[in-house]
Amino acid sequence: MTLTVDEAGLALADPKAYADERRLHESLALLRRESPVHWVDAAPEYTPFWAVTKHEDVLEIERNHPVFLNGPRPILGTAEFDALNRERAEQGIALRTLVHMDDPDHRVIRAIGADWFRPRAMRALEPRVRELAKRYVDRMVDLGGECDFAQEVSVHFPLFVILSLLGLPESDFDRMLKLTQELFGGDDDEFQRGASNEEKLQVLLDFFAYFQELTEARRKNPTDDLASAIANARIDGEPLNDFDTASYYVIVATAGHDTTSATIAGGLHALIEHPDQLERLRGNPELLPFAVDEMIRWVTPVKEFMRTATEDYELRGTTIRKGDAVLLSYPSANRDEDIFDDPFTFDVGRDPNKHLAFGFGVHYCLGAALARIEVRAFFEELLPRLNSIELAGPPESIATTFVGGLKRLPVRYSIA
Fold it and tell me: How far is residue 15's CA from residue 18's CA, in Å, rounded to a whole number?
């Protein structure tokens, strides 16, 4: 049965499409060819939006941040979920992370954590990251040559890194992992706390309750960790309000590890599926920096962000009206045939690699450098010790329209 462009557009509003790579990329390729700026009307469940699928166009909108704002609809949600968020925003109890903000708030709030992710800070953190990478490759050895890599290894390594940077006790790591999976897996039958929007929003309130206690503790007894820097930050001489403070913690504690764990699991899967590239990388370890970016492009853990037009804007001959919502499709931009040679080929030596997995411009991912360090450290530890590896069962991806990757990667291996 031939796929129509309207059916292809609807895939972008279907969490299950992101768990089916063949369906997703078939849909995105069709949109790039025939309707790169496409009106998606998935009513009544979703408020309609424009889907932008070409790399050049995603980049244009990212650059033009005064016209295309993150608020009030920064990510794709159902119409009901959007309405609940608006209601909670009016009550002052809505999530308000860097993802939700525009300038001037975005610039000022982003600066609070910026120094913690600059190159100098990353160089200081790198020995600890490498130590943890060894710990989790050793864990693969302890698991006896077979494991679910996604659940038993890759989710824990970056989680440990980012929560240690925040200064959270290790006894709380499992709780943070569960809340993160419930937050990003709200559309996944396995990870969701419940199907109702009220249950999904309750996950945020649980995050807020946890981080409100953390804020009070760090303000009473400041420490030298990132949590203390956030809790004691001042804007125009005043501390952040409780919800902005908690929101800052949430974006660091969740996106700071879930996207990286998805890249590590997806990167290993790609190497297993492309044994020639695995051998090429093992024989040429100097290619690892290129391989890391190829893994990030291949997986693209962040599937979309939304923007709202503040004025009429013409893109590829299509007029986006003031107030219209626009979905930026990063998996599509990162497989754009006009930008990447053989975009559906996994190439550990790809150079240049102009992927947009970290976004672009003022909203470029704050933790991009840390993510690259973590992925590189893990594979620098794993590859010299790896004798063999193969799938031990079918991989499974999370159902989502926002952030995700593999939730199951059964592997069988031999590690020295």
Answer: 6
Say if residues 26 and 3 touch (Cβ distance below 8 Å): yes
User: Quick check: 132 and 160 in contact, CB under 8 A?
Assistant: yes
- Please list the pLDDT of the chain residue by residue as tens digits (416 residues): 689 999 999 999 999 999 999 999 999 999 999 999 999 998 889 999 999 999 999 999 999 999 999 999 999 999 988 888 888 777 776 788 999 999 999 999 999 999 999 988 998 999 999 999 999 999 999 999 999 999 999 999 999 999 999 999 999 999 988 988 888 888 888 888 877 877 877 888 888 889 889 999 999 999 999 999 999 999 999 999 888 898 998 899 888 889 999 999 999 999 999 999 999 999 999 999 999 999 999 999 999 999 999 999 999 999 999 999 999 999 999 999 999 999 999 999 999 999 999 999 999 999 999 999 999 999 999 999 999 999 999 999 999 999 999 999 999 999 98
Nearest CA among 336, 307, 303, 338 for reference residue 320: 307
Q: Taking the alpha carbons of 350, 352, 355, 358 in that order, is the dihedral positive or negative?
A: positive
- Identify the residue whose tokens are 């302890």: 142
Q: What is the DSSP string of 35-53?
A: -SEEEE--TTTS--EEEE-
Q: What is the DSSP letter of 1?
A: -
CA distances (Å), origin 204, targets 88, 149, 174, 207, 215: 11, 28, 16, 5, 16
Alpha carbons within 13 angstroms on the beta-carbon side of residue 407 total 22
> Considering only CA atoms, which of 46, 51, 47 is closest in space to residue 9?
51
* CA atoms of 116 and 110, how far apart (whole Å): 11
CA distances from 42 to 39, 76, 77, 115, 314 (A): 10, 12, 11, 42, 23
State the residue range of the domain holding 149.
5-415
Q: Check residue 402 and report its DSSP letter.
A: S
- CATH number, domain of 389, equals 1.10.630.10
Domain count, the chain: 1
CA distance 382 to 132: 12
Residue entry with tokens 């279907």: 14
* Structural contact between residues 259 and 330, judged by C-beta atoms closer than 8 angstroms: no
Rg (CA), the chain: 21
